[in-house]
Design a protein that fits this description.
The chain has six helices and 13 strands. The longest helix has 22 residues. The protein folds into two domains: about 190 residues, Rossmann fold (3-Layer(aba) Sandwich), CATH 3.40.50; about 55 residues, Nucleic acid-binding proteins (OB fold (Dihydrolipoamide Acetyltransferase, E2P)). It binds S-adenosylmethionine. S-adenosylmethionine binds next to helix 3 and strand 2.
């Protein structure tokens, strides 16, 4: 069964002119989550041989940049270069190639599999962490991020790290992933750029009260909404949920 599925996407990629069967994973992810839109600028980390680049170019038609340790043969409309995504200097190289910030960062990077599962999982999480750091530096506010991670005991920690930085985050396995594979794609939408994150504790003062009766405090121009609070109240709160333009907080302690 798994073999039939593998052959199906392999054959389809040959027929439709995609360089890698993995092209269908990105197409399926985009169909479900609408990560790449027409005109978006897209950065692909770990992009060789270029199947995802072909898909990104087709979906967006905007500026597309691909990076890999390996060379990538020419794709019309796409800029590629060789670099290591775990090296800090790569961010500047991508920015220069892109000529600005990205709407979307995608990463299908993977280690050469050794068969020692713990080792492969650890390297995969390391690559995904580098991709997250790069995405935070490259994306516009509200930009989107897709990254592959091999399942294992560090997966949940990684998922929580991504959850802190984006408005919505899903772990997803596309149908085109091989049945026996333990790869999962983390699909994160709308990069958060406000000054607070879920779980932060801070002291605030309610500066206004909305029609709904919720109090609002401002932190560096960012609204913190506290249900059932009064004008002028001082309190210690814990951030419960963060949206691109505001956050909800729970009261930990009211102060006189
Ligand atoms: C599964 S392939 C990507 C396939 C690609 N999405 C496509 O559709 O053609 C994984 C790639 O990650 C690259 N890679 C692994 N570690 C890397 C690193 N540190 N920096 C850049 N690329 C890396 C590998 O060279 C390999 O080409």
């Amino acid at each position: 069964m798994a073999r039939d599925q593998r052959d199906y996407y392999y054959r389809l990629a040959k027929e439709e002119g995609f360089r890698a069967r993995s092209a269908y994973k990105l197409l399926q992810i985009n169909e479900k989550f609408n990560v790449i839109k027409r005109g978006d600028s897209v950065v692909d980390l770990g992009a060789a041989p270029g199947g995802w680049l072909q898909v990104a170019e087709k979906l967006s038609g905007g500026k597309i940049v691909g990076v890999d340790l390996e060379g990538i043969s020419y794709i019309p409309g796409v800029t590629t270069f060789r670099a290591d995504i775990t090296a800090e200097s790569t961010v500047d190289l991508v920015k220069e190639a892109l000529g600005g910030e990205a709407d979307v960062v995608i990463c299908d990077a993977a280690p050469n599999l050794s068969g020692a599962w713990d080792r492969d999982h650890a390297i995969s999480v390391d690559l995904a962490r580098s991709a997250l750091q790069m995405a935070k530096k490259l994306l516009k506010p509200r930009g989107n991020f897709v990254v592959k991670v091999f399942q294992g005991d560090m997966f949940t920690d990684y998922l929580n790290e991504v959850r802190k930085e984006f408005s919505t985050v899903h772990a997803h396995s596309p149908v085109a992933s091989r049945k026996e594979s333990a790869e999962t794609y983390v699909v994160a939408k709308r990069l958060l750029t406000g000054p607070v994150r879920k779980g932060d504790r801070l002291d605030i003062e309610i500066e206004s009260v909305g029609k709904s009766g919720d109090g609002v405090a401002m932190v560096e121009g960012f609204a913190i909404i506290v249900r059932g609070s009064k004008l002028g109240e001082k309190m210690r709160v814990k951030i419960d949920a963060v949206k691109p333009n505001f956050a909800f907080a729970d009261v930990l302690e009211r102060k006189d």
